[in-house]
C-alpha cells in the first residue's frame, strides 16, 4: 500500500503531467499543501522531495517550490560525423550558417552562447596510448561549453585533445580566439591536410561529480552519460580525442546501423 507522501507526490505529479500545474508555476506553500491533504508538513516535504528527485519540481531559496521548466533536448545521432565531414570543405560563408550544436538541438546560431578555452599540456598515459605517442608529448587541450541563450546550463561538458605537432603548421589551431571555428574540428583538421576515415565512440553512464552536477544543473539523482570520441584519419592515425559529458535528463543518443543484405 502506498504511503501518504507517495500518494501526495502522485497527485501532484498527475497535475503537472496534465498541465494543471505548468512549467514555472509555483506550488502552494508546504503549510497550504499540508492543510489541503490533511497531512503534516514533514509528509509534504517527503512528497516534494520525490518530485524534486524526479526533476519535476525545483526549490528556489526564499521563493518556494516551482514546476521545473523543461530544458532543450539534445538528440545526438551517428550521422552527425558524416554531416560534419560533408561541410568541412565548404566555403566559410556556408559553414558559418550552422554547427553541430544546432544540428543536435534544432536551434539557430543566434540562439546560442559559446565559450572555448585552450591550454597546452602533456599527454597523460591513457591519452598518449590512444594517440600512439610517448607519455608527456605536447597536446592542445580544448574545453567547450555551449548553452541556449535563455538557459544557464551548458548542453554538454567537452574536453578535446590534439597532438600539438600534428596541428601547429596552422597557428590558428592553437588560438582559442579563432573559435567558434566554422565547420568544427573536421574543418580545422582539413587545414593541415587531415581527412577523417572513421569516428569511434564509447558511452558509459555514472553518477555526476559534484562539480558536474552543479555546472549542468542536474536534478538530484540524475546520471550523466560519458562519451569518449576517438577520430581516425585515412592513414589510420588517431588525430583527435574528446571526452563529452551529457546530462542524463536532456540527452538522447540515437544510433542507426545499416545492415548489408544477404
Architecture per CATH nomenclature, i.e. the level-2 architecture of the largest domain: 3-Layer(aba) Sandwich
The total of helices stands at 10
Beta-strand content estimate: 25-35%
Radius of gyration: 23 Å
Q: Tell me, briefly, the overall form.
A: elongated
Q: Estimate the mean pLDDT confidence.
A: 94
Strand order of the largest sheet: 4-5-6-9-8-7
Residues in helix, %: 25-40%
Features:
262 residues, alpha+beta, Arc Repressor Mutant, subunit A, Chorismate lyase, 6-stranded antiparallel sheet, 10 helices
Task: Give a concise summary.
The chain has 262 residues and is an alpha+beta fold. It has helices at 4-17, 30-37, 41-53, 80-87, 92-95, 100-105, 125-131, 164-167, 184-190, 210-216, and strands spanning 57-60, 64-67, 74-77, 112-122, 138-148, 157-163, 196-206, 224-233, 238-247, 251-254.
Amino acid at each position: 500500500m502506498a504511503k501518504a507522501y507517495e500518494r501526495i507526490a502522485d497527485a501532484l505529479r498527475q497535475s503537472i503531467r496534465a498541465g494543471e500545474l505548468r512549467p514555472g508555476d509555483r506550488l502552494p506553500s508546504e503549510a497550504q499543501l499540508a492543510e489541503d491533504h490533511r497531512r503534516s508538513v514533514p509528509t509534504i516535504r517527503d512528497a516534494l522531495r520525490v518530485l524534486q528527485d524526479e526533476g519535476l519540481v525545483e526549490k528556489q531559496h526564499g521563493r518556494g517550490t516551482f514546476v521545473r521548466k523543461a530544458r532543450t533536448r539534445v538528440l545526438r545521432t551517428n550521422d552527425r560525423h558524416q554531416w560534419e565531414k560533408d561541410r568541412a570543405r565548404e566555403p566559410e560563408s556556408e559553414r558559418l550558417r550552422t554547427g553541430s550544436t544546432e544540428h543536435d538541438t534544432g536551434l539557430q546560431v543566434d540562439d546560442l552562447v559559446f565559450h572555448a578555452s585552450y591550454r597546452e599540456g602533456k599527454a597523460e598515459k591513457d591519452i598518449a596510448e590512444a594517440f600512439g605517442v610517448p607519455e608527456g608529448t605536447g597536446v592542445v587541450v580544448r574545453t567547450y561549453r555551449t548553452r541556449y541563450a535563455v538557459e544557464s546550463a551548458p548542453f554538454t561538458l567537452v574536453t578535446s585533445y590534439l597532438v600539438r605537432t600534428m596541428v601547429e603548421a596552422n597557428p590558428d589551431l592553437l588560438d582559442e580566439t579563432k573559435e567558434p571555428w566554422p565547420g568544427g574540428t573536421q574543418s580545422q583538421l582539413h587545414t593541415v591536410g587531415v581527412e577523417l576515415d572513421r569516428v569511434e565512440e564509447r558511452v558509459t553512464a555514472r553518477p555526476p561529480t559534484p562539480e558536474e552536477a552543479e555546472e549542468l544543473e542536474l536534478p538530484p539523482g540524475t546520471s550523466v552519460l560519458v562519451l569518449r570520441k576517438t577520430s581516425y584519419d585515412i592513414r589510420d592515425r588517431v588525430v583527435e580525442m574528446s571526452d563529452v559529458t551529457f546530462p542524463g535528463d536532456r540527452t538522447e543518443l540515437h544510433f542507426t546501423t545499416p545492415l548489408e543484405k544477404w
